[in-house]
Amino acid sequence: MRAACRIVAEILLLLREQVKPGVSTAELEELANAETLKRKAKAAFKGYCNYPSALCCSPNDLVVHGMPTKTPLKEGDILSLDFGVLYNDFYGDAALTIPVGTVRAGAQALLAATEESLYAGIDKAVPGGRLGDISHAVQSYVEVKGFSVVRDFVGHGIGRKLHEEPQVPNFGTAGTGVRLKPGMVLAIEPMVNEKSYEVKVLEDGWTVKTCDGGLSAHFEHTVAVTDKGPEILTRI
Ligand code: MF3
Ligand code: CO
Fold first, then answer.
1. Residue 95 Cα to ligand 2 middle (Å)
2. Whose atoms come closest to the Cα of 50: which ligand?
3. If we measure between CA atoms, which residue out of 59, 108, 53 comes closest to residue 80?
4. Would the CB of 187 count as within 6 Å of ligand 1?
5. Is the full-model pTM beyond 0.85?
6. Which atom of ligand 1 is nearest to the CA of 44?
7. 40-75 pLDDT, tens per residue?
8. Which atom of ligand 1 is nearest to the CA of 155?
9. Ligand 2 center–CA 101 separation, angstroms
10. Closest C-alpha to ligand 1, atom 11
11. 160 and 208 Cβ atoms separated by less than 8 Å
12. Average pLDDT in the 72-85 region?
């Protein structure tokens, strides 16, 4: 899993460097595919329930599962990129939201709060803790900042399959849920909206958008629970 997650992190780093005004997400998709091939890995999302691409590209008010398009990114946009691979029979999965050039202060605050909430959750991924400790840490961090966590999509266990038990919600009650044990690996992935947490799936059956048109951000790491504490396998 370390090897698969290393590949995910390397490729997301390369993609992040390419995000600027004028670049399209279709170009990012091409890069992701070329770099995946170079590393003899397989893009995890392509073909998963017929999803067509290696990347999920979700700009602005798209929450998750946006598909690459030829529309150029523009100054002030934010772009969520979600990417996973299968390598030597194991999966890795990570996401981040990137500012395109300079973004307004509220957008910057949303990105910071979402990324920090992920780390607040990761801090609770320790042996003896409970799943709800992670969920609660994410939710409370986000809500203190005045943002809202998406309810309709959740993180997940990950390993020989992309999605394994347990589901990892970004909202919940501390001290509840399954007991965390060394060797468990979780994809923790807060999706955070600027305004209401309500989202809808578009006609294409994939693209998830905020109902109120507010911005949405998404950060994700694949994290192992170990005796030495949380190990972030997809750290960039
Ligand atoms: N990180 C997302 C997830 O874990 C990406 C899945 S996109 C899909 O669910 F196409 F694979 F569904
Ligand atoms: Co995931």
1. 8
2. 1
3. 59
4. yes
5. yes
6. 11
7. 999 999 999 999 999 999 999 999 999 999 999 999
8. 4
9. 26
10. 45
11. no
12. 98
Q: Which atom of ligand 1 is nearest to the CA of 162?
A: 4
Domain ranges in the chain?
A: 2-232
Radius of gyration of the chain (CA): 16
Structural tokens at position 97: 């939201």
Mean pLDDT of 184-212: 98
Q: With residue 213 as reference, give the H or E element that holds it.
A: none
Homologous superfamily assigned to 2-232: Creatinase/methionine aminopeptidase superfamily (3.90.230.10)
Question: Is 82's C-beta closer than 6 angstroms to any atom of ligand 1?
Answer: yes
Length of the chain, in residues: 236
Whole-angstrom CA distances from 32 to 28, 45, 57, 68 are: 6, 12, 12, 11
CA-proximal residue: ligand 1, atom 2 (nearest) = 82
Separation of alpha carbons 121 and 166, rounded Å: 15
Residues ≥6 apart with Cβ < 8 Å to 23: 72, 73
